[in-house]
Amino acid sequence: MAGHNDSHHSSPHIINSARRVGIAVDSCALLTPGFIENNRIAVAPMRINIGTDSFSDNPRLDYNAFYGLLANEPNLTAWTAAPKPEVWLEAISEASREVESIICITVAAGLSASYDSARVAAKTAIETNPRLDIRVIDSGTISGALKLMAMDVTRAVDLGMDADEVEEVIREKRAGLRTVASIDALDRMHLIARVPHTALVVAKSLNIKPVVTYTPDGFKLVSTPVTAGAAQRKMLSIISDDVKDEPTKFIVLHSGAYDRAVEISMEIRDRFDCQFMNVSDFHPFIGFYSGKGAIGIAWDPDRSISGADGKHRGLVFY
Known about the structure:
Blueprint: E1 21-26, H1 33-38, E2 42-44, E3 47-50, E4 53-56, H2 63-72, E5 78-81, H3 85-95, E6 101-106, H4 114-128, E7 133-138, H5 143-158, H6 163-176, E8 178-182, H7 197-205, E9 211-215, E10 218-223, H8 228-243, E11 248-254, H9 258-271, E12 274-281, H10 284-290, E13 295-301, E14 305-306, E15 312-313
Parallel strand pairs: 1-2, 1-6, 6-7, 11-12
Antiparallel strand pairs: 3-4, 3-5, 8-9, 8-13, 9-10, 11-13, 14-15
């Protein structure tokens, strides 16, 4: 299985060769090799550490193997590390070719040092070349939601928006993007979610499948169903309350549970006005804490975007 399952329907995206803004993201955005290459996006890779091994993240890694290790070796020491400033500096250099400005988008600053690292790199780059216009932006999102944001930002740049307009797109997207997840393995979730460790111990003993949401305010426990089916129904109910009949883009995420993720993606297509669907692995940055078997859904209602000039633009990438 490929590292990033990329099941979606989309038409070819032809980039604007004269676009004004370069894009750099960290690898938590889960962008595929083809998307990165076709849209000239610079990626600052995180580091993935498993036991004594440490290696740079890349879109072709087999994350499924990572989740297999977590399931089979519960005492395994594994973690991810944010890109260092020098890694971000390299991405900024790559993104700065033949553009007026560079937008650097990071995974939520409350969960990772990627944002701070990118800011250090941007400061260094500007000291070297004061003419550079570099904007480092905290996406306030994770994994699939960050991917949806990066895709719409790419489309905005391709439409010829300048850096101010792209920042406005990000602000509006940040307010609307949502993620909900059902967690199977509870051993590490207390490290990043606002859930007491003792509560997770009790939940594990009762075989509860907690449902959590993620917004720019952080993780929140919203339900404690006892079966995977009940957790799935709760997640879809949360989405229904938010999007109603609006056309919406979706990404279904999983940590070593591809078949179940595909099943949920098909139900979403049946129930909602699905304008885009993608099935992807959770990035290990989140997957280490959620453990094997977690399912997440990120969604983005296709509401119009108003640029800095006040014009509304529908940014739909499909």
